[in-house]
Batch of 2 targets.
Target 1
Amino acid sequence: MDENRAANPPAETAAHGAPRICTINNDPFSIAAGLTATPGCGQNGPAYLCDTYSPVPVTDTLSYGFAIMRDKKSCCKCFELTWRSGTPAAGKKMQVQVINIGGDTTTNGASDIIIYTPGGGVGPVYDGCRQQYGKSWRQAKKKQRGS
């Protein structure tokens, strides 16, 4: 992973703002309401990540998206990630902007970058996709993963 150097000052001195939060139907909350809305993932609240945070392919070898990290100093910074293994991802790159901090985002003491996926991914604890997009989405992902 290589830090992508930008012309802007470091995040800890210049960054501010909040990511947009949506309802289960992808209608945006106001920024103020989104800051206090209870998450739909695991807490049965009305707030979900808007689908505008979906990773976006730019070329066959590059995409961009958004991420979460544990380190506050990383918030609002951009990083370029390179997949080292896995077909067909190996060698491809993704540029992400960290827009949130928190959670257990460490592996063996190192800070991980978690790529935002609207709906919360396919994990057993924070399974927002099933709630937001329905049971058929979950079944399709299980089949894709072979589980």
Note: The first strand starts at residue 2 and ends at 3.
Target 2
Amino acid sequence: MSFSPGVNDPSGASVIQEQRDRWARKRSRVARELVLTEQRYCQQLELVNTYFVEILKAKETLRPSVVESVFSSIKAIHSVNQSLLVHVENGYLGRGFEQFCPQLPHYNVYVDNMYDARKVLAAQLKKNRGFRRYKALQEARPEFRDCKLEDLLNLPAQRIHQYKHYLQDLTETTSPEDPEFQQLSGAARAVSEVSCRIQDNARSHQNHLQLLRVQRLLKGRRTKVLAPGRWFIREGWLRRVPTKGVEATPRMFFLFSDMLVQAKRCGPPHGGKFSGQHAYPLQDCTVDKVFGHTRSQGGLLSEAAVQEHDGPPTGRAVQAAAKARPRPPAERRTPPRHRRPPREEEEQGEHPTDRQAGRQAGRQTDRQTDRQTITKSHNHTVKHTHTHRHTHTRTHARANKQVTHRDTHTLRLSKPA
């Protein structure tokens, strides 16, 4: 038993006819709006080509390479859209977009160069006084309707997004039996690809700006933020909880797609900047929840990073190796001593051979005394310095041997109150 309206049912036939009429009215409205906006779009492209591209090339206000960098393929785009306008004005929407889609590579070239063109244009406006005056005079023309050149150069990317919505509406309101249905649906897919390309370029550009901002916030060149393939995720303050003690220190953390950067705020001369302390590769990091919820104010996380160093040990690896291999006491160097006062035997004119033997005995006695003084005073700075030198000596002696050192850092983090 079927509940669908039959063909012979007057009420069912009227419902279907009403739906078709609504589709026809919407399609007519979309087509009319497409024609009007296409006319205005072609007029604006003509303004750019006539008053900027052609005249700048003729007057040589800008070098030809600069003109090409700023305006790219906008002249070819204008020619392509003039042909499309002729078809849509005559009602041949499917045929017009079918011939328009093979010319979309001109739009690809333009949108890929769009952000570089903005940089070149801004640089020329800053240093080229003649071009700056010429641009202001052209924009004052009544044909521009208070539009700036920067706004006109963004029109091709904006128009692609408009084409995407127009073609979707036209495809939805066109019957599958209509010959234009396949033409419009194919054009909708091709234009959607260019629209996704524009969105990807915009995201990449915004990510580059974020990386550049963070790089400028970090003082010095210790941490390199700008790197191909790196994406900025988020930033924020966390409290680093020490393993011993009760006071947690606030630290700024920058999270990227491949690393986590820990930094602290600089002093008054550089109050708006941070000094990058550590950079932890995410591929070597593990995060464990100690207690609480990560979305609340009381969560506590433990982050451990394992770093591998190939070759000679550096940093903490040097200190660990130095503690594991203490230097023999007989080879340790003593700190610089003050010059000893002359002995009474030397002042009385003792024999040179006896005097030399006495000096050697005195040096040996002083060396033993200094070594005992260092051991008893627990001077860690002196011990660490000499051990560090010894470790580097051992490392350079085995420079041809590949050594891998693993260093583990653990952070305990909590959200600030």
Note: The longest strand covers residues 300-310.
